[in-house]
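Late entry, copper (II) ion complex.
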Amino acid sequence: TGLLAACTPTGAGASLILPTDPRVGEVEALRRTTGHTRRYRFTAQAAQVDLGGPVVRTWAYDGSVPGKEIRVRAGDVVQAELSNLLPVDTTIHWHGPALRNDMDGVPSLTQEPVPPGGSFTYRFIANTPGTHWLHPHSGTQLDRGLYAAVIVEDPEDPGGYDHDWTVVLDDWIDDTGTTPDEVLGGLRRGDGGRGSMHGMGGGTALGGDVRYPYHLINGRVPAAPVVFTARPRQRARVRLVNAASDTAFRVALGSHRLRVTHSDGFAVQPVDTDALLIGMGERYDIVVTLEEGVFPLVALAEGKDATALAMVRTGEGTPPPSSIRPAELIGDLLRYDDLRPVGETPPLGVPPDVEHRLDLTGGMMSYDWGINGLPFDPVRRLPIREGQRVRITFRNRSMMWHPMHLHGHTFRLGGTGLRKDTVIVLPGRTVACDLTADNPGQWMIHCHNTYHHETGMATILGYR
Ligand code: C2O
Ligand code: CU
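Prediction complete; structure with ligand written out below:
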């Protein structure tokens, strides 16, 4: 049972779903569209999946991890039919594209949950270009392997690359029949489910709560990595998505610098770095100019002493060992402050019309994550009005880090004005996020650590 489902009173008339706000359709009617409809089907089902050695029983879309990628042009209409063959309710949430609220896929908030045996068709204009993704929004389902990349191509993309590769990162729990729900039970009891919890790890305080047996790139363990092939001196755009539930990754490509071009789908002034950190829910696009040889694309699970691996091959050479740690991992590390948005002026310092202060609270011991000391309550909503300039100020009062995500909007970070939809808030830090209330509806704000979200670090931004 998911958090929202658990909180939703049962019985006739108890739904917390508001009637669709007429402004939802009006706002969508203003979105530019190509008029093309792209049709997809997703079947959420139990499946046996080969991770490149380990064969696991899990839940996946159409039996594959990741699920098949959606790739459309900005302005296309996405029509996706979800069939639920799971034994529990589910939905699909579209993480990243600004879309109409009634297609946002939050069960018991923006739609009725899709019951076992049921189906639901999502249909919306996808006009936010960028690297996005989709996943369920119930309980710990995401940590079973239900996720897929959603690429919205930009018609104004200047190009300048020969390849366009999607790299989806994940932490994988389900090797011995332990389910994410059992792990969650263990975290609540204080034994970590698999018997080992972490404090803050790594030099960046980005450790996690759960130890995973595997870390995956595009559904493969490091012993049998995905191989991307190209020719020397070609340029590859690499779209990184962190679909993990409890793992930040430090990403580097052996013998290469990474040119960072987009953060959460939005263009930034290009910056070169050796490595970058990506929290759960975040995306980065990078461009690399390829040397000749065979190179490891490594994602180090921060604080967990484990890696995910893919390979880039442009010529002869010996494949790197699956445990390789290229020197770039400890080279320059990208910071948010290095990134400047393209085509936007910095925040003007004008006071917002409304500010909501969200203290991130709770701890590992009692596993009582919340906001302002309270667990999620779907009745409680942070009020805003259409057209307002809204500031959400996250203050992390806990000892763990939290990747905070807002649905349906993007925000600009105080300072640089970097535009994002998911932002890492380190322990003790305060992050101000400014947005314009331009997408009416009821929208989740939550930590993208599946276990923090599920135990209560979530709230709702509600248009009046
Ligand atoms: Cu990717 Cu509410 O989540
Ligand atoms: Cu969290």
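The chain has three domains: 3-153, 163-338, 354-463. Will revisit in the morning.
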